[in-house]
Amino acid sequence: MPTKTKYIIVLCPTTPRYLHIATGRFSTLHLSMARVFDTVDAAMEVARTIHGCPALRVEGIAVDVDPAATAE
Q1: Distance (Å, whole) CA 26 – CA 21
Q2: Which of 2, 17, 47, 71 would disulfide-bridge 56, Cβ 3.0–4.6 Å?
């Protein structure tokens, strides 16, 4: 299955915590439950909205892409 780069917001005081896909809080230590964004700018905009500043880290991750889901 092909992969594509997506982006996640990471809050990292000492242990990385990811923005949870369902709750919208930094409440998960499991990358699989992190909310992903198509661009760094989109991730940073959400970080600014949540915390009022872009001081959070944004990381690129590889995600599997289902070819059937992207077929036109």
Answers
A1: 9
A2: 47
Question: Is-contact 39 8, C-beta < 8 A?
Answer: no
Q: 56 lies in a domain? A: yes
Q: Which helix (H) or strand (E) holds 44?
A: helix 40-51
Give the predicted TM-score (pTM) of the model. Answer: 0.67
Q: How many domains does the chain have?
A: 1
- Asked whether residue 28 is assigned to any structural domain, the reply reads yes
* Residue 59, C-beta contacts closer than 8 angstroms, at least 6 positions apart: 7, 8, 10
Cβ burial, residue 52 (10 Å; 0-12/13-18/19+): exposed
